[in-house]
Amino acid sequence: MISILFGGAVSMVLTLIGTRWAITLLAKRGYGQEIRDDGPTSHHTKRGTPTMGGTVFIAATIVGYFAAKLFTMTEPTASALLVLFLFAGMGAVGFLDDFIKIFRQRSLGLRSKAKLAGQTLIAVTFAVLALQFPDERGQRPASPFISFIRDISWLHLAGVLVVIWILLLIAGMSNGVNLADGLDGLATGASMMVFGAYTLICIWQFGQSCATAPGAKCYEVRDPHDLAVVAASLTGALFGFLWWNASPAKIFMGDTGSLSLGGALSGMAVMTRTELLVLLLGGLFVIITASVILQVGWFKITKGKRLFRMAPLHHHFEMLGWEQVNVVIRFWIIQGLCVVIGLGVFYAEWVTGG
């Protein structure tokens, strides 16, 4: 437990201090956010706000994790390293996107095909590696089964289908967080709640692991304790970043941050065998993504009519006249409810024995 607390504390302190330094550095270099011309007019005042803040909490999370490993003198595990690889790799794709936006002074960065290619390369590499590295019990970080709270026995995927499933999950979650990152603190606070939930889930799975407490209800998760360290480090890092990212934001995470968080979220889902449960735990991201899909679909079906005043959904409420801070707080409440319900379902499954 000490490593979990230590990792979270180190990450939080590093982000609290590091983000302040990053704001100054990025502002001096003129690395400011470009704003969509078709967005709410109130957002135009944010033009020039330092962006790429995701680099700070990516670095803080990684340092926090390895500091916890050094403090407890324990070796990193394959599961944790793979989640961190996915986290940093997706962040690298987002960094390129952000840098191009700044360099070319436009709100669009990488071309869609190049961005998709980068995400696919990182995701496929993660998926292939996650199916390797069996431990002494033959347990691998990822499973060939689709999972809800545990592997679903009749949803076995063979060969390349496993990689495709993991790829779709990563693409969906990373882009979901990316779409939610449109208001000060919205994606940061919502993500912090989900990673906090995963910290609790991993701690519980560690206590009920088949490796140490075999039984009918045990969890076949390879490295639950180390995954808890990663989740706690992410939670702490986001807690520190939110200090500077809350309204009025002094810095934005950019695609560097949003893509990395979506990658880490899907990575945790794969490693903890909660691939479908993550859709409930991260319910706000699912709702926001669905609003974009519905908007595009309705626009095409009705030949030009809009279902919402603007998508993603949080901008629709802004266009209705809601203050930005009210939208964020109410969406945080929705995300909090999703986390509570998700944790309730997770615990209820254990109580009832599945």
Automatic annotation (TrEMBL):
GO terms for cellular component: plasma membrane. GO terms for molecular function: metal ion binding; phospho-N-acetylmuramoyl-pentapeptide-transferase activity; UDP-N-acetylmuramoyl-L-alanyl-D-glutamyl-meso-2,6-diaminopimelyl-D-alanyl-D-alanine:undecaprenyl-phosphate transferase activity. InterPro entries: Glycosyl_transferase_4 (IPR000715), PNAcMuramoyl-5peptid_Trfase (IPR003524), PNAcMuramoyl-5peptid_Trfase_CS (IPR018480). GO terms for biological process: cell division; cell wall organization; peptidoglycan biosynthetic process; regulation of cell shape. The chain crosses the membrane at residues 6-27, 48-66, 78-96, 116-134, 154-173, 185-207, 227-244, 276-299, 327-348. It is found in: Cell membrane; Membrane. It comes from the Bacteria. Pathway: Cell wall biogenesis; peptidoglycan biosynthesis. It is a multi-pass membrane protein. CDD domains: GT_MraY. It is an enzyme of class 2 (transferase). It catalyses: UDP-N-acetyl-alpha-D-muramoyl-L-alanyl-gamma-D-glutamyl-meso-2,6-diaminopimeloyl-D-alanyl-D-alanine + di-trans,octa-cis-undecaprenyl phosphate = di-trans,octa-cis-undecaprenyl diphospho-N-acetyl-alpha-D-muramoyl-L-alanyl-D-glutamyl-meso-2,6-diaminopimeloyl-D-alanyl-D-alanine + UMP. Mg(2+) binds at residues 178, 255. Its cofactor is Mg(2+). Its main location: membrane. Its EC number is 2.7.8.13. PANTHER family: PHOSPHO-N-ACETYLMURAMOYL-PENTAPEPTIDE-TRANSFERASE, PHOSPHO-N-ACETYLMURAMOYL-PENTAPEPTIDE-TRANSFERASE HOMOLOG. Belongs to the glycosyltransferase 4 family. MraY subfamily. HAMAP family: MraY (MF_00038). This is Phospho-N-acetylmuramoyl-pentapeptide-transferase. The gene is mraY.
